[in-house]
Amino acid sequence: MEDENIEIFKDFVIGLNKRNKLKQCTKCTRNFPITSEFFYRNRTTKDGLDSWCKECKKEYDKYHYQYKRYNITKEDYENMMEGQNGKCLICGRNFDKIYFPQNTHIDHDHRTGKVRGLLCNNCNVILGNAFDNPLILIKAIKYLQENKKKRNKKSISLFHEHIYFL
User: Fold this and answer.
1) N- or C-end of the chain: fewer Cβ atoms within 10 A?
2) Closest alpha carbon to 162 in 118, 98, 112, 73
3) CA distance 165 to 119
């Protein structure tokens, strides 16, 4: 009876060890439980799971997709970031103070596909909403300048500090 209990206990412990096994991500070297919750499935591997954790894979895929889409290398991206001193080309705000570097946008000419530089989300949206048309942007500047005269000082103080007036 006692031997049976020991065998059952051993089977239980062995089952626990199988369920609690950890797998190390070969990219970030962190350990995760061997489940599809932490690793994507991959039929070509022995355990049926990818060698990189989902977090590393998502990060890699996001950047790899952008590089491939705009026909640039990681080095090109890093050189652009360095050449811009880590700042948006339009508003001049620092990416790492306001945005995470991964939230930068690779700005490109929609007609030619040529990469123009790196922008923050706000500036990228401005260009997109203006259909990359300088005339629309000039009209927007004139509109702001004309309406600036109409505003009194009290209403200006209500605006958020990130809004810039011309």
Assistant:
1) N
2) 98
3) 20
